[in-house]
């Protein structure tokens, strides 16, 4: 036997593949030995076959099925290049999707961390907020006491159709002014924060994308009840007036659940935020 031929055990070591895998490749006619001894049934491989196993391993590494590899083995160089170009494009898309998933996870985690970092409830505090992209919907008659499920569904469907997911937060914004009762507050728009870094294509005329500006904010956080809402809003309003603060005349409202268990009494955390202008 030529010394450039290898037993199945030797080939297994050279290729870093189990002997069982080489036998299986032989059975399915993917990678056959150059010679099989009829007396002993021992398989022997040629050194020149090593590049074929390299090709198989490379294609398996990028997820190519064995049946497809059998087909590819008969490709011309041009056909092989075209196939690899398509594989590269597929992998690039998968990588982008994984990166987008990672981005979404980080944003969701950050929302939860921010909720834990609220320094005090029922008292005014200041906080630096990063800018946030918001998918907004003009919702007539939406108030702190009632937002239509149909309107929220429109936002959720748009988020999901764009390949993202709904966040644990939602909210609204409305004019900063004196309100005597909660019924007087009418939302300018309701929103869901956009967790994805991708561009959004909004088709609905009632929807648009608004950016909540980065900056220092005067804030109030509390557990929602109708009475508590207007009381905490008034406290925030008075704080701004008494301290003669120069602020943006917009209230950004953020709403988050306090827990995610159906066995716990539902409590909703509300944050009211007003941006300082100096």
Automatic annotation (TrEMBL):
Domain of life: Bacteria
UniProt feature coiled coil, ranges: 81-115
SMART domains, sorted: HTH_MERR
Signal peptide: none
Organism encoding this protein: Kurthia gibsonii
InterPro entries with a match to the protein in the record: DNA-bd_dom_put_sf, MerR-type_HTH_dom, MerR_fam, Reg_factor_effector_dom_sf
Full protein name: MerR family transcriptional regulator
Pfam families linked: MerR_1
Domain HTH merR-type: 5-75
Keywords in alphabetical order: Coiled coil, DNA-binding
């Amino acid at each position: 036997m030529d010394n450039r031929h290898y037993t199945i055990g030797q080939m297994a070591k050279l290729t870093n593949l189990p002997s069982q895998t080489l036998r299986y490749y032989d059975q399915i006619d993917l990678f056959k030995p150059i010679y099989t001894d009829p007396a002993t049934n021992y398989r022997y491989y040629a050194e020149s076959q090593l590049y074929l196993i390299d090709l198989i391993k490379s294609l398996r590494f990028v997820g190519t099925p064995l049946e497809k590899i059998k087909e590819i083995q008969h490709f011309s160089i041009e056909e092989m290049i075209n196939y690899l170009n398509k594989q590269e494009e597929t992998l690039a898309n998968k990588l982008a999707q994984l990166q987008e998933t990672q981005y979404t996870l980080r944003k969701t985690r950050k929302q939860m961390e921010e909720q834990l970092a609220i320094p005090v409830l029922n008292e005014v505090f200041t906080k630096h907020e990063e800018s946030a992209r918001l998918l907004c919907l003009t919702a007539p008659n939406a108030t702190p006491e009632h937002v239509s499920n149909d309107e929220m569904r429109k936002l959720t469907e748009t988020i999901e159709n764009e390949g993202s997911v709904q966040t644990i937060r939602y909210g609204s914004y409305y004019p900063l002014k004196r309100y005597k009762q909660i019924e007087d507050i009418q939302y300018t728009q309701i929103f869901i924060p956009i967790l994805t870094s991708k561009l959004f294509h909004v088709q609905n005329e009632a929807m648009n994308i608004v950016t909540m500006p980065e900056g220092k904010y005067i804030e109030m956080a509390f557990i929602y009840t109708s009475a508590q809402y207007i009381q905490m809003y008034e406290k925030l309003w008075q704080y701004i007036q008494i301290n003669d603060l120069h602020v943006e005349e917009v209230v950004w409202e953020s709403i988050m659940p306090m827990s995610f268990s159906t066995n716990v009494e539902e409590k909703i955390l509300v944050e009211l935020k007003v941006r300082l202008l100096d």
